[in-house]
Amino acid sequence: MNLRFDSLFVLLLLQASRPASALSPVTFSSVATRIAEQVMTRTRTVVQAPPDLLKSGGLAEACRELHRHNGQECPTAKMVAGLELPYDFPQGTYYRNGPGRFNADDGTSVIHPFDGDGLVTSLRITGKNNEECRKKNAFWTSRFVHTPGYLKDIESGKMTGRGVFGSMKSGGWFNNVMDIEPKHVANTNVIRWGDHLWALWEGGRPFLLDPETLETVDVEYSANNRIQGTFAAHPRKDPSSSHYFNFGVDDLDPAAGRTKIHYYELDDGEVVSTPTAFTLPGAAMMHDHLVTDNYLLMVWTSAEFNGLEGLKGLLGLGSFVAAIDITPKTEVLLIPKDILHSSDDVIDATTDPRIKRIPVPYQFNYHLGNGYEKDGKIIFDAIETTDEEFDFCYGSVTDKKPVWEIMDFDEMEPFAFAQYTIDVENEQYVDKQIITDCGSIEFPVVPTEMSGKEHQYIYTVASHDPHAETSGTPGTICKWDLENDEMEHFSFRPEEMVGEPAFVPKIGGEDEDSGYLIVLVNNGMTLTTDVVVLDVEGPGSLSRGPIARSRLPSYVPGAGLHGRFVRAGKTS
């Protein structure tokens, strides 16, 4: 049983507020007036009463509505009307994955978005790239990943599998007792390798999709039996080659008190060496990692298996993830990349002298931004929290209500965005700079080609007000200039939620920020989804707002999880 989980969808439920610089002042009455107008003019509007306005400007009811309704498939590519893109926007495809199905036909609902079935979307951009021809065509496709659990749910009309975060099968308590195999939901990330699109979920192996039609073509792909177990949702590009690295957290053994982690090196989707396994004590909780010139970097927060919570999960009275107790101890692990080419089958990461273990101030890390080596040190970005209870899901299991219905958005503490410096030679923690601890920063993004290299800019999602001291609904895109300690942003309307943006390099662009961000924006009042493009090159570009925005042919729920833009003719 694998107890790993993707953590950021929590942000969908945790962020709030909005900046006055990006939008005109909003009052409750003005919001209610706009929503009333939408009720009269949009047939898809589902909320007919003024929703609750959060302290910082987001609409809690809009967030709830985005999780009460399943997403829509668009299996046949449809043209997106009115999307005019500049000539230096390249041809290619924007892929994204995220939970998209929360309700079975019999009315049974998941209680946490992470347990929703994966809905993969693609936006394919075609057309000439010259100044005389600015018009490009965009084609939209969306499909659910056809996992065995999804197909069984569709055929039966019921919820036939349990979720890692406490979602139960249809049929009541008795039907869930002793079922310890969580449903594979394939809902976290996508990456294009070779002739296939890989749909990733860190609780199992990848599913392979057709990159054009998004049809599922292979289930639980093992890469000729080289993927030993699970395959995490954050492959990272090597800074000095075309290779990628990824890992899988496997074999949590409560009796032995250890966890095994497999590391993989891949070239265009092919595992290039025999996977190396590392063991760590306790229940290792790792979701993301980084790759630098010489090292694989993991942030390890120690954890233990909670027998009582594990028993409750076994009996259908609790969630699997609740069986892991975080202990307030964090270390940075630096694993030499060449160790993957050694003859070792299994390496004890706590005793092997080749692996550096560097204690840092306690935090739990959800996502990492980027990391690089400079002057004998490693500098890396982290999105972190000190919450060691993970109670964003436990209450739902007890109340048997979805987390989005019971969460108090205004009371959630925002995540912190920090940059760490590690002295590699002396194996010492140097310092931590808090970039911000406001606005619930999440989804850190750098251009793929900057992976493992020194970067000046990083792009994130934030609350509607990125300066708010509380959380709420995610509604802002930020550009951080780490060299000059500056930030600019653009915020969307209070009823709109945004997910992780993807960086699209401009044709002929020479600077690190020569590019666009592409992102999906969901409206919780109308249950519609727009694609938005933002220029981020140069100071002030992002704050001027979208350069292109169009309604998509089908609705995508929530705010999604991870994705990427792939240039035409390229993979990964």
Automatic annotation (TrEMBL):
Pfam families for the chain: RPE65
InterPro entries per the UniProt record, alphabetical: Carotenoid_Oase
Cofactor(s) listed in the protein's UniProt record: Fe(2+)
Single GO MF annotation: carotenoid dioxygenase activity
Signal peptide positions (record): 1-22
Cofactor binding note from Swiss-Prot or TrEMBL: Binds 1 Fe(2+) ion per subunit.
Annotated Fe cation binding sites: H234, H287, H367, H562
GO BP terms, alphabetized: carotene catabolic process
Keywords associated with the record: Iron, Metal-binding, Oxidoreductase, Signal
Entry similarity comment: Belongs to the carotenoid oxygenase family.
Protein's name according to its UniProt entry: Uncharacterized protein
